[in-house]
């Protein structure tokens, strides 16, 4: 946590008055790959099962992201990126696992520090790629058959890594639109009930559309 905080501070301090900066917002379609879920339940029993996750990007709360980018020169930049991704265990997983609630729908909430590289323009488009490291701050929503009430709370969830690639199109000197594909790898380790724990490695993938303001 301290290392990540220092990284974010360094990125902000690295921004100079004459650097090109942009603020972006985006949404899109986000899904997640199946994953193996390891459980220690509140009675101490341990087991695992394969979960099928659904993104339901357009159901409230919506999938969205916010990104601040500081371009250090014509090609290289640094970004702080927050994405409100989410996953729901599907009905088959709920039935097979016996759980009443198993989802992270108020967000897996991934915050990363990214390095970006943009290519020379290809016609009217500017292609770019990026990668970064950060943390997940999920809203844990879990209820096992042993619990009277579900756990509904934000927690530190673990480390995360992201990779993205896309292209932007300038509308004016200040505004542009972009499309990109993004992948997040999230090492989720959270608590539920008094003593329960849940561990899984989530891989989310998204197709994003967004708008940027450059200043």
Structure description:
This protein is mostly beta strands. 9% of the residues lie in helices and 61% in strands. It has two helices and 15 strands. The chain has helices spanning 2-14, 91-97; strands at 20-32, 35-40, 46-51, 53-54, 64-71, 76-84, 87-89, 101-104, 110-118, 125-136, 139-143, 151-154, 158-170, 175-192, 196-214. An eight-stranded antiparallel beta barrel has the order 1-5-6-9-10-13-14-15. The protein has a five-stranded antiparallel β-sheet with strand order 4-7-8-11-12. Strand 2 (35-40) and strand 3 (46-51) form a beta hairpin. The protein is elongated and about 60 Å long. The two termini are 30 Å apart. The mean pLDDT is 92.
Which descriptors would you attach to this protein?
215 residues, mainly beta, 2 helices, 15 strands
Radius of gyration: 19 Å
Task: Give the overall form.
Answer: elongated
Uncertain stretches: none
- Tally of DSSP helical segments: 2
Précis, in short:
The chain has 215 residues and is mainly beta. Helix content is 9%, strand content 61%.
Walk me through the topology.
Layout: H1 2-14, E1 20-32, E2 35-40, E3 46-51, E4 53-54, E5 64-71, E6 76-84, E7 87-89, H2 91-97, E8 101-104, E9 110-118, E10 125-136, E11 139-143, E12 151-154, E13 158-170, E14 175-192, E15 196-214
Antiparallel strand pairs: 1-5, 1-15, 2-3, 2-15, 4-7, 5-6, 6-9, 7-8, 8-11, 9-10, 10-13, 11-12, 13-14, 14-15
């Amino acid at each position: 946590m301290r290392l990540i905080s220092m990284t974010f501070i360094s990125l902000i301090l690295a921004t100079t008055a004459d650097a090109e900066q942009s603020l972006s917002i985006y949404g899109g379609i986000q899904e997640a790959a199946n994953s193996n879920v390891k459980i220690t339940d509140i009675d101490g029993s341990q087991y695992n099962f394969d979960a099928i996750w659904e993104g339901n990007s357009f159901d409230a709360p919506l999938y969205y992201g916010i990104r601040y980018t500081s371009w250090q020169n014509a090609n290289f930049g640094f970004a702080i990126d927050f994405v409100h991704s989410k996953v729901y265990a599907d009905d088959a997983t709920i039935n097979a696992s016996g759980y009443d609630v198993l989802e992270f729908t108020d967000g897996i909430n991934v915050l990363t520090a990214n390095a970006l590289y943009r290519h020379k323009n290809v016609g009217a488009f500017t292609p770019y790629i990026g990668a970064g490291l950060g943390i997940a701050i999920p809203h844990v929503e879990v209820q096992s058959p042993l619990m009277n009430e579900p756990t509904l709370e934000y927690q530190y969830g673990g480390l995360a890594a992201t990779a993205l690639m896309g292209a932007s199109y300038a509308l004016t000197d200040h505004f542009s639109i972009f499309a990109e594909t993004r992948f997040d790898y999230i090492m989720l380790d959270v608590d539920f009930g008094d003593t329960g724990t849940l561990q899984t490695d989530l891989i989310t993938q998204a197709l994003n559309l967004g708008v940027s303001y450059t200043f």
